[in-house]
From TrEMBL:
Species this chain originates from: Arthrobacter nitrophenolicus
UvrD-like helicase ATP-binding domain segment(s): 1-262
InterPro entries: DExx_box_DNA_helicase_dom_sf, DNA_helicase_UvrD-like_C, DNA_helicase_UvrD/REP, HRDC-like_sf, HRDC_dom, HRDC_dom_sf, P-loop_NTPase, UvrD-like_ATP-bd
Protein name from the UniProt record: DNA 3'-5' helicase
Chain spans, region Disordered: 661-781
GO cellular component, one term: DNA helicase complex
Length: 844
């Protein structure tokens, strides 16, 4: 069965099996349906159960082999089955140490992938070297060293009495080959086989399937060679393409009617595959003629192509589009952001969080491993024991709602984000699942049935739908679908990936993009950026796969800064300060440690910093990540800087730019008469006031503007591209860098009693100094000012002024309302009398 994307192959498989069971052709206990993921197997079992064929076994290759291995091990081998190894990293690291090889996390990961490929290709350490020629240098090691690590890894496993997942298949194959009694028993148990996603079968899995069949031809396979995306695991589409040659009597059925996507999406998918050019004899032999899909749905929106200035701008643009879709009625759970590598997710997590949009990271913490889900299942199980048969039956949905209410569930979603929202979404998914099961299986489906269903789903990791935008890699998205899909990062080097250095690997990258496109039902957006970071060199090009698909001219979604971008020095390799492993992502490099190592900050300090960031973002009406990223807050909480200089080393370019460019951009700082200490009362018009009261020009200089408008970052690390647009007085303004930098340093250092001194920018002063604002980043327009005497006054930056307490206007000063409440230096300011308190310090 050759089934294109969206053609309903799962429905075809399950209805074919159910029809065979009900017509007597199949005995349910004698049929084994095999698929590649636990989620797909659980979905197949659920559909078969709804069709009245619940006794049919639907498992993954590994699950079916492990079940047989557990049953036959005592009689075929003797003793107890070794423990199953979840991850190879620890054993591989020990194997490398035995050989005195230096490794890091990245090289261990590459070695693990290489050994997995060798084992599913049925290679051993002895014959690996001769069969692995041309595979490069996995983990930075030559193939001879890899073979030695392979052997050492097998020795470590033997010493520890453990086996890995590849061993499960290998040992099962060995037992079936060597013990005819075991093989006969298995073949008697299973007489009919159905294999889904057959294009991803590895040589080892094909060998196991052949042994299960034992020469019979009671086999139905389903696949699409255009969706072969797992060749790095040893998968090969040749098994699908050569199926007719192996089984000449086989019937071939093609499913080409696409019931999932709109004609616009289907056309783009077809055009992508049709645009492939010859890659040479070897690549052409491996490339299968694609199925030409025919859309069955009504016309929909045309896919969009967007070019952005940098990765952050791309993430912000995608978040804005998603918010518009959700506001228009699209559920958040029906939206997905798909990327090539997992490292791309961080920017989108922050952009969605800043926009107040819930999300789930596919491949992150498993649903049934979450604490709130485990607690809910315990409560539900306890309720089944406490229930009396005499109790009046209550609808399952309402009963589940009542039980999980004690864990924080409410009928309406909380307005806040973060952990509270994630907890609610997990509980809401359980409630929605209860309603769905009652609808599908009838009102007799009760609490005991629901608990049993959750137990089965937990074992299979078949999680219910969580109400949030899905973030997933293109590989993890295989087999899933959404109403709206955003394909991001479609630039050369990411799509195709930089290490796709052969025609065959580039073809697989094209198929991977095809898989991403065909995940969309209605809305499809493709985007890329020309630079990695704001202000970085715009040397990225759109993916070659988009040639001929996108419009000739795609407007940029954001304005790039004029002039050449500053050259950046190549960063030295960063290592974790705790374990010494290489740091792979920008967030890890910012914090100075890898994600696997425990954080070194106090929760109270981090919460104070986060609350401060939230207050700044709400006051300035900007996303929270524009102020500081989570990684920067973590770095501040761990380092607890004692000065603005230390904070600038953590917070990046923006904080340093205010101090280093104050004079050169603004001219000379104006002189002012000395201040006289006073706590309250009127200040004379000539008294010293902070520089931010003195207007947009200082000493006749030009309006203040950071040297690179496109990355001016007046609120931290990122340019929010906003300016003060309200009246001079009476409107919350944008609070500027140094004051907030001091607050951040204060929040980080308050735990050890740090009291920041007055900020000194440009000239000696007894008051905290801020750069005169003039024109804010990215704008050439002079701000609104109001003249008092000869000196223009600028009232911007104080969310609590509301037109009151301006000392130069002869009103009563209140330092808690005129900026000093927001400035940690207020404690040291003589005009404040030492009594003004910084809200962030109080919170910390």
């Amino acid at each position: 069965m050759l089934a294109g994307a969206g053609t309903g192959k799962t429905r075809a498989i399950t209805h074919r099996i159910a029809y065979g069971v009900h017509s007597g052709v199949y005995t349910p206990q004698r049929l084994l349906a095999v698929t590649f993921t636990a989620r797909a197997a659980a979905e197949m079992r659920s559909r078969l159960r709804d069709l009245g064929a619940g006794n049919v076994q639907a498992r993954t290759f590994h699950a079916a082999a492990l079940r047989q291995l557990q049953f036959f091990w005592p009689q075929a081998v003797g003793g107890s089955l070794p423990n199953l190894l979840d991850h190879k990293a620890q054993m591989l690291a020990e194997a490398a140490r035995r050989l005195r090889l230096s490794t890091d996390r990245a090289s261990i990961r590459d070695l693990a992938s290489e050994i997995e490929w060798a084992k599913v290709s049925m290679l051993t350490p002895a014959n690996y070297l001769e069969n692995a020629q041309g595979r490069g240098t996995p983990g930075g090691f030559d193939l001879t060293a890899v073979a030695r690590v392979f052997q050492a890894y097998e020795d470590v496993k033997t010493d520890r009495n453990v086996i890995d997942f590849e061993d499960v298949l290998l040992i099962t194959v060995g037992i079936l080959q060597e013990d005819e009694r075991v093989a006969a028993t298995v073949r008697e148990q299973y007489r009919h086989f159905v294999v889904d996603e057959y294009q991803d079968v590895s040589p080892l899995q094909q060998r196991l399937l052949d042994l299960w069949l034992g020469g019979r031809d009671e086999l139905c396979v389903v696949g699409d060679a255009s969706q072969t995306i797992y060749s790095f695991t040893g998968a090969s589409p040749r098994h699908l393409l050569d199926f007719k040659a192996r089984y000449p009597q086989a019937s071939v059925v093609k499913l080409i009617r696409d019931y999932r996507s709109t004609p616009q999406v289907v056309k783009l998918a077809n055009d992508l595959l049709a645009a492939r050019r010859s890659g040479g004899p070897a690549a052409d032999a491996a490339w299968a003629t694609p199925l030409q899909l025919v859309a069955q749905r009504p016309a929909g929106p045309v896919p969009t192509f967007t070019e952005c200035a940098d990765d952050e701008a791309e993430a912000a643009t995608v978040a804005q589009k998603i918010k518009a879709l959700i506001d228009a009625g699209t559920p958040a759970s029906e939206v997905a952001i798909l990327f090539r590598t997992n490292g791309q997710s961080e920017a989108y997590e922050q952009a969605l969080a800043a926009a107040g949009i819930g999300y789930q990271l596919r491949g992150g913490e498993r649903f049934f491993a979450r604490k709130e889900v485990r607690d809910a299942i315990l409560q539900l199980r306890a309720a089944t024991r406490a229930a009396s048969e005499a109790d009046a039956p209550e609808p399952l949905g309402q009963l589940v709602r009542d039980i999980v209410a004690s864990l924080g569930y409410t009928d309406s979603a909380p307005h806040s984000g973060g952990a509270l929202r994630e907890r609610w979404e997990s509980l809401a998914a359980l409630v929605a699942l209860a309603d769905e099961l009652v609808q599908n299986r009838g009102p007799q489906f009760g609490l005991v049935d629901f608990v049993n269903e959750l137990q089965e789903r937990s074992l299979a990791q078949h999680a219910p739908t969580v109400q949030g935008v899905t973030l997933a890699s293109l590989h993890a998205a295989k087999g899933l679908e959404w109403d709206a899909v955003f394909l991001v990062g479609l630039s050369e080097g990411l799509m195709p990936i930089s290490f796709a250095d052969s025609p065959e690997s580039v073809d697989e990258e094209r198929r991977l993009l095809y898989v991403g496109i065909t995940r969309a039902r209605e809305h499809l957006a493709l985007s890329w950026s020309t630079a990695r970071t704001p202000g970085g060199r715009a040397n990225r090009k759109p993916s070659r796969f988009l040639d001929g698909l996108r419009p000739a001219s795609v407007a940029s979604s954001s304005t790039r800064g004029k002039g050449p971008a500053p050259r950046r020095k190549a960063a030295a390799p960063a290592v974790c300060r705790v374990c010494g492993s290489m740091l792979a992502t920008g967030a890890e490099r910012k914090v100075g440690r890898c994600n696997a190592c425990p954080p070194g900050y106090e929760e109270q300090t981090f919460d104070a910093l986060r609350n401060w960031r939230r207050s700044v973002a709400v006051s300035a009406d900007i996303p929270a990540f524009v102020v500081f990223t989570d990684a920067t807050l973590t770095a501040i909480a761990e380092a607890r800087p004692a000065s603005l200089e230390e904070l600038a080393g953590l917070a990046g370019w923006a904080l340093r730019s205010w101090r280093n460019t104050g004079k050169t951009c603004s001219g000379s700082w104006p002189k002012a008469p000395p201040c006289e200490p006073r706590s309250r009362g009127r200040e004379p018009a000539g008294s010293c006031a902070p520089d931010h009261h003195r207007g947009g020009r200082a000493g006749g200089g030009t309006p203040f503007r950071p040297p690179y408008p496109h990355r001016g970052g007046f609120l931290g690390e990122r340019d929010s591209r906003r300016r003060h647009s309200g009246p001079v007085h009476g409107s919350p303004g944008v609070r500027v860098g140094p004051a907030h930098a001091g607050q951040a340093a204060a929040a980080g250092g308050a735990a050890r009693g740090f009291r920041p001194e007055a900020t000194r920018l440009g000239r000696r002063t007894c008051r905290p100094r801020h750069p005169p604002l003039g024109t804010l980043p990215g704008r050439a327009r002079r701000p609104n000012v109001r003249k008092v005497g000869e000196q223009p006054e600028l009232a911007v930056g104080f969310s609590n002024t509301r037109g009151r307490n301006h000392p130069a206007l002869g009103q009563t000063p209140s330092h808690a309302a005129v900026g000093h409440r927001l400035c940690p230096a207020a404690r040291a300011c003589p005009s404040a009398g030492g009594r003004a308190q910084c809200s962030v310090l109080e919170a910390a």
